[in-house]
C-alpha cells in the first residue's frame, strides 16, 4: 500500500489506540512512500486517515491518533533527531541540582554516558561538576544540551522540583525514543499519575531516595549522607522483573533496591514529608527542633494522626502503624537539616506543598476524611509562599 506524505525519507511513530506502533517510512518515488510497519499487536485501522488526520490537525476521534499535547501527537518522532542505539544506557538528566548532580557523578564514575539537560544548555558544551564527599572532591565533565537538542533520549532521569516535572518532560518529549525509560526521582506525589496519563506507551518508573546532598553553588555539590534508593514501575504490570537497565544502575548507585511495588515507599516518604516540611517551614526551625521543643512536639502528634488515617484508608495500614516510630527516627537522624520547604521559602522560591500536603488532602477528600490540621498548614504555606 502506498500513501503520500509531506516529505520523503521520514521516520515517524504514531501512538494508536492499541499502544505505540512504529512505522518506517522509506522513499519510493514521486513523493510517495511505502509504510513498512512493525506492530506489537494487530490493530485494524485506516493508515491514510491516521496520517492525513495528523497533517490536517483533525481531532483524535476523526483521525484515530491519540493527542496529548495541543501542538500535535506525542508519538510523532522528530525526523531530525538522531537516535542513540548503544549497548550501554546513556542517561540524560533533567534537573541538575543537588540530587541530579549526585546521581550524574555516580553513573559517570561507573562508566555510564551522562548528559545534562539544562534550560539554557548548548548542545555539546561541557560543564564541570564537583561533588564533595568529606575531604574528597570528585570532579567530572559532562556534555550539556538544551531541551531542543539533536539526539534521541533512551534513558531519562528526572530530578526537578515536583511542580516542574511535567513541563520539563514536555520540553523534551519530541526527543524521547519510543522505548524510552523514564525514572521520576522528584519529591512528592501526584505528578506520577500525570506523566503516566500523558505517556502511556513509555516505560515510566518512580523512585525515592534518602541520599543527602546540598547544592553549594552551580556545579558544586556536597554529599551530606548516604542513604537508600528504591525504584519501581509507576504502573503495576504482570511482569515485575527488573528492567535490564537496572542491573547497570545498581552497580553505579550504592544501596539501590528494585521494588516490585513502589507505592508503599512513596507513601512512607510522603507521610514523613507531610509532618516535617510544613512544620519546619512555618516555624523556621531545623528538623531536630520538632522533637526537642515541647510545643513543636505537641503539634507533631495530632498532625501525624491525621496523616496515618489517610494512609490507612489508602490501603497502607502498616505505614500508619509505623508512622510514629519512623517520623521520630527521621527527625532525630536529620536533626541538623533544614527542610527543602524551609529553604524554598527562605529563598523566595515556589514550594512543593501542592505535591506533598496538597496530594494528601486530595486523597483525604476521596475517602471523606477530615484533616483540619493538614489543611491549615497547607493554606498557611500557600499564603507564605505568595
Automatic annotation (TrEMBL):
Q: What is its EC number?
A: 1.1.1.169
Question: What's this protein's family per the entry?
Answer: Belongs to the ketopantoate reductase family.
Superkingdom of origin:
Bacteria
What's the protein called, per UniProt?
2-dehydropantoate 2-reductase
* Pfam families reported for this sequence: ApbA, ApbA_C
Give the range the annotation lists for the signal sequence: none
Q: Which residues form the Ketopantoate reductase C-terminal domain?
A: 261-383
Which keywords, in A-to-Z order, does the entry hold? Answer: NADP, Oxidoreductase, Pantothenate biosynthesis
Q: Which pathway does UniProt place it in?
A: Cofactor biosynthesis; (R)-pantothenate biosynthesis; (R)-pantoate from 3-methyl-2-oxobutanoate: step 2/2
Enumerate the catalysed reactions.
(R)-pantoate + NADP(+) = 2-dehydropantoate + NADPH + H(+)
Give all residue intervals belonging to the Ketopantoate reductase N-terminal domain. Answer: 91-234
Organism source for this protein? Candidatus Marimicrobium litorale
NADP as UniProt keyword: yes
Q: Which NCBIfam families does its entry note?
A: apbA_panE (TIGR00745)
Please tell me which top-level EC class this enzyme sits in.
Answer: oxidoreductase
Known InterPro entries for this protein?
6-PGluconate_DH-like_C_sf (IPR008927), 6PGD_dom2 (IPR013328), ApbA (IPR003710), Ketopantoate_reductase (IPR050838), KPA_reductase (IPR013752), KPR_N (IPR013332), NAD(P)-bd_dom_sf (IPR036291)
Amino acid at each position: 500500500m502506498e500513501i503520500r506524505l509531506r516529505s520523503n525519507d521520514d521516520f515517524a511513530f504514531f501512538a494508536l489506540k492499541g499502544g505505540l506502533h512504529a512505522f518506517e517510512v522509506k522513499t519510493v518515488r514521486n513523493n510517495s512512500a511505502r509504510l513498512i510497519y512493525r506492530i506489537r499487536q494487530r490493530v485494524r485501522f485506516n493508515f491514510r486517515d491516521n496520517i492525513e488526520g495528523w497533517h490536517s490537525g483533525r481531532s483524535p476521534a476523526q483521525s484515530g491518533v491519540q493527542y496529548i499535547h495541543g501542538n500535535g501527537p506525542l508519538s510523532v518522532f522528530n525526523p531530525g533527531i538522531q537516535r542513540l542505539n548503544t549497548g550501554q544506557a546513556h542517561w540524560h538528566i533533567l534537573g541538575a541540582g543537588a540530587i541530579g548532580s549526585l546521581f550524574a557523578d555516580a553513573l559517570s564514575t561507573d562508566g555510564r554516558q551522562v548528559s545534562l539537560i539544562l534550560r539554557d544548555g548548548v548542545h555539546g558544551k561541557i560543564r564541570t561538576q564537583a561533588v564533595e564527599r568529606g575531604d574528597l572532591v570528585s570532579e567530572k565533565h559532562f556534555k550539556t544540551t538544551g531541551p531542543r537538542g539533536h539526539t534521541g533520549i533512551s534513558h531519562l532521569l528526572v530530578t526537578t522540583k515536583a511542580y516542574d516535572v511535567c513541563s520539563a518532560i514536555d520540553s523534551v518529549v519530541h526527543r524521547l525514543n519510543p522505548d524510552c525509560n523514564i525514572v521520576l526521582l522528584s519529591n512528592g506525589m501526584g505528578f506520577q499519575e500525570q506523566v503516566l496519563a500523558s505517556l502511556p506507551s513509555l516505560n515510566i518508573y518512580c523512585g525515592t531516595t534518602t541520599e543527602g546532598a546540598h547544592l553549594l553553588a552551580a556545579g558544586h555539590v556536597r554529599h551530606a549522607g548516604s542513604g537508600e534508593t528504591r525504584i519501581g514501575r509507576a504502573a503495576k504490570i504482570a511482569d515485575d522483573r527488573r528492567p535490564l537497565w537496572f542491573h547497570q544502575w545498581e552497580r553505579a548507585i550504592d544501596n539501590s533496591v528494585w521494588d516490585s511495588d513502589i507505592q508503599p515507599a512513596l507513601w512512607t516518604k510522603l507521610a514523613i514529608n507531610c509532618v516535617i516540611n510544613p512544620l519546619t517551614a512555618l516555624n523556621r526551625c531545623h528538623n531536630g527542633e520538632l522533637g526537642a521543643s515541647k510545643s513543636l512536639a505537641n503539634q507533631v502528634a495530632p498532625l501525624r494522626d491525621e496523616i496515618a488515617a489517610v494512609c490507612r484508608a489508602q490501603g497502607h495500614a502498616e505505614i500508619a502503624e509505623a508512622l510514629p516510630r519512623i517520623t521520630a527516627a527521621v527527625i532525630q537522624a536529620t536533626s541538623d537539616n533544614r527542610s527543602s520547604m524551609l529553604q524554598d521559602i527562605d529563598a523566595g522560591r515556589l514550594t512543593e506543598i501542592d505535591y506533598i500536603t496538597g496530594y494528601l488532602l486530595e486523597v483525604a477528600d476521596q475517602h471523606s476524611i477530615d484533616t483540619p490540621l493538614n489543611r491549615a498548614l497547607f493554606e498557611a504555606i500557600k499564603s507564605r509562599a505568595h
